[in-house]
Amino acid sequence: xxxxxxxxxxxxxxxxxxxxxxxxxxxxxxxxxxxxxxxxxxxxxxxxxxxxxxxxxxxxxxxxxxxxxxxxxxxxxxxxxxxxxxxxxxxxxxxxxxxxxxxxxxxxxxxxxxxxxxxxxxxxxxxxxxxxxxxxxxxxxxxxxxxxxxxxxxxxxxxxxxxxxxxxxxxxxxxxxxxxxxxxxxxxxxxxxxxxxxxxxxxxxxxxxxxxxxxxxxxxxxxxxxxxxxxxxxxxxxxxxxxxxxxxxxxxxxxxxxxxxxxxxxxxxxxxxxxxxxxxxxxxxxxxxxxxxxxxxxxxxxxxxxxxxxxxxxx
Length: 315
Ligand SMILES: [Zn+2]
Known about the structure:
Layout: H1 3-10, E1 14-20, E2 24-31, E3 39-45, H2 48-51, H3 54-69, E4 75-80, E5 83-84, E6 91-93, H4 105-113, E7 117-121, H5 122-132, E8 141-147, E9 151-157, E10 160-161, H6 197-206, H7 223-246, E11 250-254, H8 265-276, E12 286-289, H9 296-314
Parallel strand pairs: 1-4, 4-7, 8-11, 11-12
Antiparallel strand pairs: 1-2, 2-3, 5-6, 8-9, 9-10
Helix pairs in contact: 3-4, 5-9, 6-7, 7-8
The structure holds zinc ion.
């Protein structure tokens, strides 16, 4: 089958995209077409997967979803915040949903529901989804960094995910401090031990303000104000580190934290430009902010489907 025949064969196919985050599982349907618009949204707590067999829970959610919405999908695409093996099946380590560790999520679920299941890093879906809304010049290298429950990052190199062996970009586990705080991965002093959703929850609880409004305290000469500055400084240092290592032409910063009310985007951007973009290597690096929010993962799911289904057809 030629590439053109393959592209024609998948037009109009309905996909279910499941974006499993550290806090929420979000599900939507999307059809492969020129103008891809996600629909039939549902949302569940990720804690559901911790209660019992997570594959059985996913099967149940998908069955209910397809029946309720009258959808007959050609495939299911799942984004997970985990380290996955090179076959994109076996979950090596999922720090925020430990019940998934050691499970062959794609093949086990495929047996249960009878249609192809494609699994990939949640951040790869997000980055593909954000990229789909942009026009980049030739030879681009796109770095995406997403601040949410944890830290997600990935790199697209001319439309292909940049991979060494099995991992995405485990930016959250870059060593940040000597003998530092314990991280969800079990080590001490990782960046994610200092930059995660739980840290923001602690700041908001101590300041008696709802977490959704915590950045209203940005710039205040108070304990909360100082803790928020330290938090964003740590985020900015991490973005700077990633730019220094990857040397991208474009950076997209996103995730639930960056989308919060009063989040100091301008401050972070200035910090990063001052620290990382003043050398001859990175001075032309373009920094932008995620625009598609929660929708990005669903659009990215279509890109993953095209990539993986095409590979299967050629085997
Ligand atoms: Zn870590």
